[in-house]
Design brief:
The complex is a heterodimer of chains A (113) and B (112). Chain A is 0% helix and 53% strand. In chain A, strands 2, 4, 5, 6, 9, 10 and 11 form a 7-stranded mixed beta sheet that branches. A 4-stranded antiparallel beta sheet of chain A has the order 1-3-8-7, with no helix packed on it. In chain A, a hairpin with a 5-residue loop joins strand 7 and strand 8. With 112 residues, chain B is mainly beta. Helix content of chain B is 0%, strand content 55%. Chain B is built from no helices and 11 strands. Chains A and B meet through strand 4, strand 5, strand 6, strand 9 and strand 10 of A and strand 5, strand 9 and strand 10 of B.
């Protein structure tokens, strides 16, 4: 069974631009969560989607948004990029909203210049 | 506020036992996770504790005391490949999901 896939793996953007990251969960998994990881702040929860609905949201500005499609694939969007948005963005999938075991994808390394 | 504390770094010798502690203060508690993350890789799930006590899984065990807001991860028979960061994370409140709060991680160095 294929693992969680994220595209692209690396991305370089300029301040003020916007970016869309994609995540495909493990087949059969319906819950997708997004995290931002930086050396200074560690791993921080962005949001969680289940059945195309956002179920939980972390403490990030409205520039960070996401969505989930009917096939459970998810995208997150960051608008008006800032230098501080440079980070590793990780997606994790789990079988169901009540399942505790999450499987992380390899991440997208975003660099904002 | 929400806070998770764990030591920044630890060093141990191959074949030994190491205990990585984690204390937390969160508004509500669903469960506590431990993840392993090798440099440049994604975190991998190690354990999940909901009830007090020790959960053993091979060389790794995790302990939880909800009344003390305390957990530890115990690694036995250390191997060089265990050199990694170990992340303690808490799912707070009754969100029914993964609004998970992560600690900064403990970087473990295993020496020969």
């Amino acid at each position: 069974k294929a693992g969680v896939t994220q595209t692209p793996r690396y991305l370089i953007k300029t301040r003020g631009q916007q970016v869309t990251l994609s995540c495909s969960p493990i087949s059969g998994h319906r819950s997708v969560s997004w995290y931002q990881q930086t050396p200074g702040q560690g791993l921080q929860f962005l949001f969680e989607y289940f059945s195309e609905t956002q179920r939980n949201k972390g403490n990030f500005p409205g520039r960070f948004s996401g969505r989930q499609f009917s096939n459970s694939r998810s995208e997150m969007n960051v608008s008006t990029l800032e230098l501080g948005d440079s980070a590793l963005y990780l997606c994790a999938s789990s079988l169901d909203i009540g399942s505790y075991e999450q499987y992380f994808g390899p991440g997208t390394r975003l660099t904002v210049t | 506020g929400q806070n998770i504390d764990q030591p920044t770094e630890m060093t141990a010798t191959e074949g030994a036992i190491v205990q990585i502690n984690c204390t937390y203060q969160t508004s509500g508690f669903n469960g506590l996770f431990w993840y392993q993350q090798h440099a440049g890789e994604a975190p991998t799930f190690l354990s999940y504790n909901v009830l007090d006590g020790l959960e053993e899984k091979g060389r790794f065990s995790s302990f939880l005391s909800r009344s003390k807001g305390y957990s530890y991860l115990l690694l036995k028979e250390l191997q060089m490949k265990d050199s990694a960061s170990y992340l303690c994370a808490v799912s707070p409140g009754n969100t029914g999901g993964f609004k998970t709060i992560f600690g900064a991680g403990t970087r473990l160095f295993v020496k020969a």
